[in-house]
Design a protein that fits this description.
Layout lengths: L2 H19 L8 E5 L3 H12 L3 E5 L6 H10 L4 E3 L1 H6 L3 E4 L3 H9 L8 E4 L4 E3 L5 E3 L5 H8 L4 E4 L6 H5 L9 E6 L2 H13 L3 E4 L6 H16 L12
Parallel strand pairs: 1-2, 1-4, 2-3, 4-5, 5-8, 9-10
Antiparallel strand pairs: 6-7, 8-9
Helix pairs in contact: 5-6
């Protein structure tokens, strides 16, 4: 190998090491998007833009709409069954309706050590038509109980899919609250959030998921009453 070639190789290696050590930059992960609805369709392409490989988990991975979503996500994206998607991923996103989430989580296989992003919300209509929490504890805590060896991070539950797909459409900064018991997992989720152009605030362990899910209730009820807003928590 000539001196010039060795120098060029070293320069490429050095640039790679610098980029990986920069704040907020992480190595590429395989991300399993469990579901192919609005949340998955918004976050999958966004995470792919950050260099992550996206695998959609669908009951019918060959469906035309799933094939179109895979094509829109990028060349490295694919689709398979939910359990196979989760098996090959470091990060699992539960982009599922709440009423099927328990069955889906319990059918994903071994989630030990995986980061599980929970954007779900368990809510029900109240007698006046406004929304209220639908479980005694929280969706996040229940999911952590169904996957005790995974690292659940509550995130993305306080905004709509349009803002996930295009954060600039909100007309200003939007803050995503997160909670979870594993700090390293929260840090990686925070990097995803800031990477796609949103802000993040860490509100503590998973036992505070109920409070974060209550923020969604406030957000929904404001919209029902004709006073919509987006969360922006200004740091001091």
């Amino acid at each position: 190998m000539s001196l010039v070639t060795r120098l060029m190789t070293f320069s490429v290696y050095l640039a790679l090491m610098v980029s990986l050590s920069a704040p907020g930059v992480a190595a590429a992960d395989t991300v399993a998007m469990i579901g192919t609805g609005r949340v998955a369709s918004a976050l999958g392409p966004q995470f792919a833009k950050l260099g992550h490989r996206i695998v959609y988990g669908s009951r019918n991975p060959g469906r035309d709409s799933v094939t179109a979503l895979v094509a829109r996500t990028g060349a490295t994206a694919s689709a398979t069954t939910p359990s196979r998607a989760a098996a090959q991923a470091e990060i699992v996103v539960l982009a599922t309706p709440w009423n099927v989430t328990e069955r889906v989580v319990k059918g994903l296989g071994d989630l030990s050590g995986k980061i599980i992003i929970d954007p779900t919300n368990a809510y029900a209509p109240g007698p006046d038509g406004l929304r209220q929490l639908g479980v005694a504890t929280s969706a996040g805590e229940l999911i952590q109980g169904w996957a005790p060896d995974g690292h659940v991070v509550k995130a993305f539950n306080t905004l709509n899919s349009a803002t996930m797909a295009d954060p600039s459409s909100a007309g200003g900064p939007v803050t995503i609250p997160i909670v979870g018991d594993n700090q390293a997992a929260k840090d990686r989720v925070a990097a995803l959030i800031t990477g796609i152009g949103l802000e993040v605030v860490d509100l503590g362990p998973i036992r505070y998921a109920r409070e974060v899910e209550g923020m969604l209730i406030v957000w929904m009820n404001a919209r029902i009453m004709g006073r919509p807003f987006e969360f922006h928590l200004r740091p001091h």
